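chain below, 190 aa
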Amino acid sequence: MTEPEQKRLRSFIAIPLPEPLRQELAVLSQQLSSRVPELKPANVENLHLTLNFLGDQTAQLLAKIGQSMLSIGRSKRIFNVTLKGLGFFPHRRRPRVLWIGLEPQRELIQLSRQLAKELELLGVQFDVRVSRPHLTIGRFKQQPKQLKLLSPFLSHSCGTLNVDRIILFSSELTPRGAIHTPLTTAYFTG
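prediction:
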């Protein structure tokens, strides 16, 4: 079977969230959607910190990506980030996605760039513009009428995340939502 004929899996690289933090973010997203009904909260089971969205890739290439991730994991040390503030993709005037900010971003951006460099070496085609670390907590079903009602939450702090691994996920879109399946886990042991 040639490369174009092989089944492709929608995939991304992310940092998992511990259950208590996922639950706290679920409560926050429910509070936000009660203020702005056009906001659909993200499924608590699927909450994660996206580093690199890879799009549709072959299983063979995903195996190579997994090997590169394991190598990166051996060189990385565990670090912490604080979840703080809200932001919008693509922009506040016409938002489609609501995300939580991360501080400091330096380690996350370095990790994302290191992954992007490895992905380029493997010939992975992906959209660099969406390779900015983010944590999506909801999507807008339509243009929100009262976005200013989220103002009290714009600098809200949600706690700290201990970043000790990255995971390569496949993501199957279904009518009930996305199903994320871990393919490779790379623990930080550097």
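Helices lie at 19-35, 59-75, 106-121. Residues 10-187 form a domain with the Cyclic Phosphodiesterase; Chain: A, fold (CATH 3.90.1140.10).
thats it, cya
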